[in-house]
Amino acid sequence: MMTTLLKENRLWSYVNTVIHVPQNDLVAMDAYEVKQAKAQRFLLDGVKDALIPHLSEKQTAHEM
């Protein structure tokens, strides 16, 4: 279910692979940050509350 949700929102690559922060392109950097935040939110919404402190300290969805 989580994989499907992430794929539907075109965020699966942010979890499945390392996506590097775009450099020298403010629009691309903004889009990257928004997609990272969405992917992280989906992941946090899908786990038990006890795991949230361990996952929320990670910097990227891939690390989570």
Explain what you see:
The two termini are 17 Å apart. The chain contains 4 helices and no strands. It has one domain. It is 58% helix and 0% strand. It is globular and about 40 Å long. With 64 residues, the chain is mostly helical.
Q: Could you name the key traits of this structure?
A:
64 residues; mainly alpha; 4 helices
Write the layout of secondary structure elements.
Blueprint: H1 2-8, H2 12-16, H3 26-45, H4 52-56
Give a concise summary:
This protein has 64 residues and is mostly helical. It has helices at residues 2-8, 12-16, 26-45, 52-56. The mean pLDDT is 95.
Q: Could you state the order of secondary-structure elements as H and E?
A: HHHH
Beta-strand fraction estimate: under 5%
First-residue to last-residue Cα separation? 17 Å
Helix content: 55-70%
Q: Count the domains.
A: 1
Average pLDDT score: 95
Radius of gyration in whole Å, from Cα? 12 Å
Count the beta strands.
0
**Per the principal axes of the C-alpha atoms, what is the gross shape?**
globular
Alpha plus pi helix count: 4
SSE class: mainly alpha
Q: List segments where confidence is low: pLDDT < 50 over at least 5 consecutive residues.
A: none
How many strands, what sense, and barrel or not for the largest sheet? none
